[in-house]
UniProtKB/TrEMBL annotation:
Heme binds at residue 246. InterPro entries: Trp/Indoleamine_2_3_dOase-like (IPR037217), Trp_2_3_dOase (IPR004981). This is Tryptophan 2,3-dioxygenase. GO terms for molecular function: heme binding; L-tryptophan 2,3-dioxygenase activity; metal ion binding. It comes from Streptomyces triculaminicus. Keywords: Dioxygenase, Heme, Iron, Metal-binding, Oxidoreductase, Tryptophan catabolism. Heme-dependent dioxygenase that catalyzes the oxidative cleavage of the L-tryptophan (L-Trp) pyrrole ring and converts L-tryptophan to N-formyl-L-kynurenine. Catalyzes the oxidative cleavage of the indole moiety. GO terms for biological process: L-tryptophan catabolic process to acetyl-CoA; L-tryptophan catabolic process to kynurenine. Pathway: Amino-acid degradation; L-tryptophan degradation via kynurenine pathway; L-kynurenine from L-tryptophan: step 1/2. Coiled coil: none annotated. Belongs to the tryptophan 2,3-dioxygenase family. Homotetramer.
């Protein structure tokens, strides 16, 4: 990250002339690094609520995942906007970045993937009713994937800012809606009912859309359509992996107990983890 050369006396530099210039040590205010990264704020947000030493990594992993969710929402919003503007290179670049980010997100399971029930129990009761189910940014992510649900806004009815943002995402076309719109403008036979659908409704698979993807995949493997299809498939697979890694970590940590958010726990997660986003991209493959 670039920063201006401050005018400090040589005594305030950790000089090692034989190895070239060394980093500046003195700044007029906070460091430019702090101004940019806000590390003081970020590293003061870890407040464990139990005495268990194992809780810290649970909290930090959850916060790290929230940060990745935030970046990925940003990428998919960029990709959706670019598709709307028929700018495929920008859309593909954002989707590509998001696949690297999803891979990092998924790798963050490692510290929680091996919790025994006793280790999890050591701080679990302190969590009360808190559950990842209440993550508003995860819900935005799902909405961008086409998994819309007005009911998912209910937990935020007393948080007007969060509620308004999520409501905006509910009513906006999803990334997949924008991809289908782009295909239609390229001359593919996406039905009008799909293009004009209520974007606040959960996306449900449509035969004609499957037929379009099937034709795309049967054709030129280097076509722009095929590249978009593969970029979306990569995203869908990595989302599926996150859900399944979450499911297995949960099964290891708490077996079939009910969730802190009030669900049946593993049985409920299993149903959600079994689904594939962008459904026709998966079903079309059977006929190519
Ligand atoms: C071993 C640690 C974890 C366990 C045992 C666990 C358990 C659960 C359970 C049982 C649910 C179902 C809802 C409920 O009744 O609470 C759930 C949902 C969820 N959890 Fe976790 N969780 C863990 C770690 C995490 C982490 C680190 C995140 C990151 C933010 C997270 C994000 C979510 C999300 C987004 C949902 C909602 C999923 C959906 O709506 O399909 N979980 N979790």
């Amino acid at each position: 990250m670039p920063h201006a050369q401050p005018a400090f006396p040589p005594a305030l530099r950790d000089s090692a002339p034989e190895t070239g210039a060394s980093p500046n040590l003195a700044f007029e205010g906070t460091t430019p690094y702090e101004d940019y990264v806000r590390a003081e704020i970020l590293t003061n947000l870890q407040k464990p609520i139990s005495d268990d030493p194992g809780e810290m990594v649970f909290l930090v992993t959850t916060q790290v995942m929230e940060l990745w969710f935030t970046v990925i929402v940003h990428e998919w919003e960029t990709a959706a906007r670019a598709l709307r503007e028929d700018d495929l290179p920008v859309a593909l670049a954002a989707l590509k970045r998001s696949t690297y980010e999803l891979t990092s997100l998924n790798a963050s399971w490692e510290p929680l993937a091996h919790l025994t029930p006793a280790q999890f129990n050591a701080f679990r009761s302190a969590l009360g009713e808190a559950s990842g189910f209440q993550s508003a940014t995860y819900r935005r992510l799902e909405f961008l994937l086409g998994e819309k649900s007005a009911a998912m806004l209910v937990p935020y009815r007393n948080a007007p800012g969060v509620h308004a943002r999520l409501e905006g995402a509910l009513n906006a076309p999803s990334l997949y809606d924008e991809a289908l719109g782009w295909l239609a403008r390229r001359g593919h036979a996406i039905p009008a009912a799909v293009l004009e659908r209520d974007p606040s409704e959960r996306y449900a698979p449509v035969q004609e859309v499957e037929d379009v993807w099937q034709a795309v995949y049967a054709g030129d493997q280097g076509s722009e359509e095929c590249r978009l299809g593969e970029a979306l498939t990569e995203v869908a697979e990595l989302v599926w992996r996150w859900r399944n890694d979450h499911l297995v970590a949960t099964r290891r940590a708490m077996g079939a107990k009910v969730g802190s958010g009030g669900s049946a726990g593993v049985a409920w997660l299993e149903k959600r983890a079994g689904k594939h986003v962008f459904p026709e991209l998966w079903t079309a493959r059977s006929n190519v």
